[in-house]
């Protein structure tokens, strides 16, 4: 599909940006502390920032509302025909497995979908959509300017695809689901399937569960 191909291209473009952001922390250990504590591949990266958006109930939500919680952040949109629903399903299935195995730890995590299609993703549309994946998943939208700023702060690339003669459209976007810590700082990228490795399922729910078990303390 056109949307699938464009998403793959944008993922390819986004990876060097993320690598650059996290290049100084790719050692995987906290050498500064000397205690051998593991660090995620995004530790120290300049990703994230304060925002105020609108949730699926039409209420304002601020980034700082989640202080003290881990934040599992996925950028996508409800009209996405293939990538977003598959990613979200598998991420939230992995989260559900983690929740069943470690309910107290899972309670420290807030999963959220931030829309890159604010024109169509109204709170009412988001409410129905996120409920299909997990009761804890929240959907966030805003004005085009608000979404553009959040996307920039979170190193997310997106763009509307117009097709001649078509009444509908797709939105291409980078696949960069993040895990942030209780302090709001980025930890690591949440596993998603890599289209370049068809024989390996990097985004399987059990791998998402293992990822969460590794980082949620």
UniProtKB/TrEMBL annotation:
PROSITE patterns: THIOREDOXIN_2
Gene3D superfamilies attached to this UniProt entry: Glutaredoxin (3.40.30.10)
Disulfide linkage: 80-84
Key words of the record: Copper, Disulfide bond, Metal-binding
InterPro entries: SCO1/SenC, Thioredoxin-like_sf, Thioredoxin_domain
Positions bound to Cu cation: 80, 84, 173
Annotated ranges, domain Thioredoxin: 42-213
SUPFAM superfamilies: Thioredoxin-like
GO molecular function: metal ion binding
One Pfam short name: SCO1-SenC
Family: Belongs to the SCO1/2 family.
Protein name: Electron transporter
Species this chain originates from: Sphingobium lactosutens DS20
């Amino acid at each position: 599909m056109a949307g699938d191909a464009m998403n793959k291209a944008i993922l390819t473009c986004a990876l060097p940006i993320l690598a650059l952001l996290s290049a100084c922390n790719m050692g995987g250990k906290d050498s500064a502390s000397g205690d051998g504590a593991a660090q995620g591949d995004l530790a120290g990266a300049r990703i994230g920032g304060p925002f105020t958006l609108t949730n699926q109930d039409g209420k304002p939500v601020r980034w700082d509302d989640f202080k003290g919680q881990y934040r599992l952040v996925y950028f996508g949109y409800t009209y996405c025909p293939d990538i977003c629903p598959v990613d979200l399903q598998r991420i939230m299935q992995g989260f559900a497995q983690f929740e069943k195995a470690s309910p107290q730890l899972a309670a420290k995590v807030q999963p959220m979908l931030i829309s890159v299609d604010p024109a169509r993703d109204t709170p009412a549309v988001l409410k129905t959509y996120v409920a299909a994946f997990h009761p804890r998943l929240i959907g966030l939208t805003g004005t085009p300017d608000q979404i553009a700023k959040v996307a920039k702060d979170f190193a997310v690339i997106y763009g509307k695809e117009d097709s001649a003669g078509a009444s509908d459209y797709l939105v291409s976007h980078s696949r960069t689901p993040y895990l942030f810590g209780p302090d709001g700082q980025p930890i690591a990228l949440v596993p998603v399937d890599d289209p370049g490795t068809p024989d390996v399922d990097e985004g399987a729910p059990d791998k998402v569960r293992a990822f969460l078990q590794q980082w949620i303390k």
